[in-house]
Design a protein that fits this description.
Blueprint: E1 3-8, H1 13-23, E2 31-37, E3 42-48, H2 51-61, E4 68-74, E5 89-90, E6 96-104, H3 107-116, H4 126-141, H5 145-153, E7 158-166, E8 172-178, E9 183-187, E10 190-194, E11 206-209, E12 214-219, E13 225-228, E14 234-235, E15 240-241, H6 257-263, H7 265-273, E16 277-278, E17 283-284, H8 287-290, H9 293-298, E18 302-306, H10 308-325, E19 329-333, H11 334-337, E20 349-354, H12 360-371, E21 375-380, H13 386-390, E22 393-396, H14 409-429, H15 434-456, H16 458-468, E23 473-478, H17 483-497, E24 500-505, E25 522-527, H18 533-545, E26 549-555, H19 560-564, E27 567-571, H20 580-597
Parallel strand pairs: 18-19, 18-20, 20-21, 21-22, 23-24, 23-25, 25-26, 26-27
Antiparallel strand pairs: 1-4, 1-10, 2-3, 2-4, 5-6, 6-7, 7-8, 8-12, 9-10, 9-11, 11-15, 12-13, 13-14, 16-17
The structure holds fructose -6-phosphate.
Length: about 625
Amino acid sequence: MCGIVGYIGHRDAQSIILKGLQRLEYRGYDSAGIALFDGKNINITKTKGKVSDLDNKINNLKFRGSQIGIGHTRWATHGIPNDVNSHPHCSNSGEIVLIHNGIIENYAAIKTELINRGYSFKSETDTEVLVNLIEDIQKSGNYMLGKAVQIALNQVVGAYAIAVFDTKKPNEIIVAKLGSPLAIGVGKDEFFIASDASPFIEYTNNAVYLEDEEMAIIRLHKEARYRKIKSDTLFDPYIQKLKLNIEQIEKGGYDHFMLKEIFEQPKAIVDTYRGRLSVNQGLIKMAGVEDYIEKFLSAEKITVVACGTSWHAGLVGEYIFETLARIPVEVEYASEFRYRDPIITKKDIVIAISQSGETADTLAAIKLAKKHGAFVFGICNVVGSSISRETDAGAYTHAGPEIGVASTKAFTTQITLLTIIALRLAKAKGTISQTNYKKYLVELENIPSKIEKVLEANPGVEKIAKIYKDASNFLYLGRGFNFPVALEGALKLKEISYIHAEGYPAAEMKHGPIALIDENMPIVVIATKYGHYEKIVSNIQEIKSRKGKVICIVTEGDTQVKEIADHVIEVPLSSELLSPLLTTIPMQLLSYYIAVLLDKNVDQPRNLAKSVTVE
Ligand code: F6R
């Protein structure tokens, strides 16, 4: 879960790498480092903290002008975040320099072997073991660096995306990948290396995404050579044309990426259904589903595997699929699914949901499902990601880059996509009337403008945030389709404001959580018009009799809840099925404003990373 960047070419490597690392901080941000080489001298600067700390440190030292370099932003796995454990790591001779995203699982055995052979280690990392293994192989067999890297990678178990160079051969960087992503930007007489394409989009739109067990030898003023690590065969890479642009990865005038992404949701949802939904013709068309429609229709059950927010979207999907298409759905945490013995057969469909498409547990769950013969369908946001490649078929949410660590537009676009798929299957199965089908198509098309309206109520949410920002605990309650939204609301608050919060189905409150309620407990309740409204009103009464503070999300024009709640936030009227797309918005805003008022780092909350590539 780290970010790596490298450059070889005619520009100033330092500025390219530092800017690139900043764009990759979503992958980890507890320490950072850079190695710059001007052909004679190597400068390595490392620091605990963020890329901005590295920038300050390096600017005091002035290493401008190097045209080869590698850099790293870290999310610690082996060894605490400190200067020494930060990457890049050097071999004992100081000649080989390496950055690594991933985990070398058998590092301890290799380390013992290397210590017996006279090597010493400064850090606690698995990466320092790998760089010394490469040096040991290079020296003992008198190999070129590329060959030594290849032999070493055949000895390690685990995951890696690495970039490595040898100060004795200043015009060459070797990169390799297994399990962690690695993109190579191909420019004119220059190459960029990165965990994703964002560090190099302003320089080139030609990218090669290495597949697992592939490596490349990148040399200045020459063609790169691509090789399979295991079979040792050369291959011609597929050069992808990138569609990403620089505006998409900048804040665009917002204070934080999270706020920008919350406000982007109307557009993101349109981008999700564009080309897939034709309301006039009453049609839904999705290549990934059409090509496998028989499989979907004959499926005995659907199992959703996902983590975190994507798991919450899967839960909403369960309600949607079962209601519309009458297919039984189970939603599993990918991390649990992968380590139990799930009953999955070739008659099953597994839907894997992931914004990043890189979540290690979800990837492992997919592999297990495939082993059982299930057909695996992926719902991802990041184009070309590992999950999108590993699944049998799938669809992209097209939400655009999500950079804030707390997921917002990923959630609503995942729900949108699940709704479209469920409607398509319901139509094919005949489990929905033509009137309802048409009604949902029209309603889905109108959701973005309804979200715009919710976003306009933003100042009201900020006022509520000011009142409750110092609470120690929050409860979030919802029923039916909005129960997963309550879970998601609580997760959003926890992760960016560090306030303890729990989500519950509203009726479960009396089986335990009600004991927590007193005058200091704010409770966010989703009480929209359709979906057990009267029952929810009773739940609110129960809270008020125990002096809890109630913040309700209600349908425009509601009068009954307004009478009893402490605060209400209105959302436009919608069917219960589509209401999560609206009710989730005030919850995202509430968490955002509380975190800002508490002066927390909204886009990069502590201990988290955007892409969880370790299990
Ligand atoms: C919460 C959040 C995480 C992710 C989870 C899965 O705001 O962002 O809970 O949802 O790590 O990530 P993806 O969707 O990339 O698989």
